[in-house]
Amino acid sequence: MNKKKIRVKNSGFVKLQNFNDFPDGLLGIAEAKKNIPIEIKRVYFINKLFNQKSKRGHHAHKKLEQIIFCINGNFKIKLDDGANQQTILMNDPSVGVILGKELWHEMSGFSSDCVILVLANDYFVENDYIRSYDEFLKYVRGHHKK
Ligand code: TYD
Prior knowledge:
Elements: E1 13-15, E2 17-20, E3 26-29, E4 42-46, E5 56-61, E6 66-72, E7 75-80, E8 85-90, E9 95-99, E10 104-108, E11 115-120, E12 129-130, H1 133-145
Antiparallel strand pairs: 1-9, 2-3, 4-11, 5-10, 5-12, 6-9, 6-11, 7-8, 7-10
The site of thymidine-5'-diphosphate has 7 residues, from strand 4 and strand 5.
């Protein structure tokens, strides 16, 4: 994990609580509104990333707030708030990245053993997605003028 500061808006690092049962495993613990700064209404995972050229994400959300973890393997996530861009290497299962609202994100470079875990503060709502980058720029720029 590159521990450089997150400069993009509506993001940041989140640390899971760890319980090290070495050599019998390591627990990572997420408690809503305690070490996890959101309510958790939905949890989803992504695994079986066998295509080296996979690209995921490529969207922003109008309202949804999520926290993304790489609980096995590694991948890269590019964050873009419309003004600043930053790429973070995800390779520490205990450290998540906040995907706040209005944050364009793209994931790539998945190791084949990669397992992604996402905590979300709402149910799946297709209408909350912004799937065009041009539309995203218009949305954030229009918004900040108000
Ligand atoms: P998407 O969020 O676009 O995946 P990623 O950000 O990893 O690229 O989700 C891909 C599709 O999966 C989406 O178009 C619909 C479906 N989906 C659900 O039905 N419910 C969910 O909670 C999620 C996350 C996705």
